[in-house]
Every structure is written in C-alpha cells, then in structure tokens.
Amino acid sequence: MRVLFAGTPAVAVPSLNALVKAGFEIVAVLTRPDAPVGRKRVLTPSPVAARAMELGIEVIHAAKVDAGTTAKIAEFAPDVAAIVAYGGIVPKAALGVPKHGWVNLHFSLLPAWRGAAPVQRSLIAGDDVTGAATFQLEEGLDTGPVFGTLTETVRPGDTAGDLLERLSISGAVLLSQTLSAIDAGQAAPQPQEGEISLAPKLTLDDGRLDWQQPALALNRRARGVTPEPGAWTTLEGQRIKLEPVALRPDVKDVPPGHILVDGRSVLVGTGSHAVELGRIQPAGKKMMSSADWARGLATPERVVFE
Fold this sequence. Notes:
Radius of gyration: 22 Å
Strand order of the largest sheet: 5-2-1-6-7-8-9
Low-confidence stretches: none
Strand content: 25-35%
Structural class: alpha+beta
Number of helices: 8
C-alpha cells in the first residue's frame, strides 16, 4: 500500500519508523518547513524531515496544506495518508486525495481531549489513564470514526514529555496495525462515543503557577506543561522557570508563595500544603538546583513568589 506520511515533531518519528519496518511503501513525507532552533536561531529540519532524509524518502515542506500542497500530494498517488502531529489543518480538498483518506494517530482516548495538546491537558486535569487512538480524519476537529485505541496508565511523576514518549512508541504499533487492517479490507471504524473534552494548544500563560491553588493542582499543571511551554512563576517582576514540583503534605504552615528552606529542600507554600521545588532557572541564568539558588538568597524567608 502506498502511504503518504505527515508529521513534524519527534513524537511522530516512531510512527514513520514503524511503517517503514512493516513494509509499507512510503511515497513521500509531508512536514512543516525548517524552523529556527537554539539561541543562534539556526534553521533546522523537523525531526520527521531529518529521519525521512536518512531513509531516502522525498520530503514535502509545507506550513499548510493549500492547493499547491494538495496538488503535490496527488502527484504521489497515495492509497492512504497517515498523519501524526503534523501541525496543520487538512482541508476537504486534500482529504479526498488518497483512496482510503487520512488516518490520524491522536494521543488521547477520543472523544476525550480533542485538539492540539491532549496529553498536556490530560495531565493538568489529573487523569489516571490516557491513551491513543487512530481515526479517520474529517473536517471536524478530531471527530472522525475510530479504528482502534490503546490505554496508558499515568505514573505519579509523569511529565507530558514522559507520557508522549511512551505513547509515541505504542501508538506507532497501533497505527501500523490500523493501516494493515485497511490494506486487508478488514478495518471497521466506529463512531466516537462518550464525553467530549477539548485540548487547545498550550500558551505561555498555561505554565504560570498560581500559589493560591492547592498543591495537587500545581503539581499536575507543572507536569503537564513540561517540557513546553514550561512551568514558571515571578519574583520581583522577573519570570523564573521551574521544573515539576513535588508534593509535601507534611508541611502545612507555609503561606501561599512563601519560601521555606529546610536543609537542602526548598519548599513553597500553596493553597493547601507545601510543594518542594526541583530545579529552577532565574531570569538570565542557567537551570540550577533549588538548593543552590536558595543559598544565593540573603533572606530566603522573605522571598515570596507572585
């Protein structure tokens, strides 16, 4: 079966690898254009583009699937298009190009968490179980019928990065199995059923920790926004980046936002009990341990995060 693969970030690479290993003919890869990376803003191919070039697969770079991109896709005459985190809308005109349409690997148990940040929103909401689904792409936002699903238990310290890494590997197997079933004429997608929730793309504001909130909510939010856009707070008007915070239910007498240095542990008060800081990155400095940061404070007991 001739497959067009569409994807951009690192989490899509395992799916490309799985389809190649399964023997599908990958006629081309659609990915977003090279983007500036690092402090020097060097134009760099997407992880999917880099892997496709290693495999000798032709790459279509496109910021969106417009008429020109659709025509280019049609030249490869794909039987099906597999899409994993491409990062753009596929319009109706392009949906009809492959004989079997577009099959999307989405990192949630649809119809839960439709949208661009399903794993992140799931963690922030405190879900105990998440997963992945393959579904037939249509014009609605992640609304198409589902071919198959898998589940993944959320571990206590999971960040969005951790969970996405595991789902990208197990999801690659699911996508390969789905395309094999389509090729064999055995696929039977079913309409989505259940409660709908939405997962819009994260913004920088989603990473801000509100110390008036309970510790558990702050723990979930910090894990959900790691690695991107990252958890943060402010001190004297300066933004400070934080790695995920640990729960300290044994410490309940620290006011919200206030710092308590306990040996090598740096605690912050919340709306319930304290949390313990991991690493911290003050404005204009490198990431460091919270203990090293606290040693540089003249009066840590007077420090209050805003």
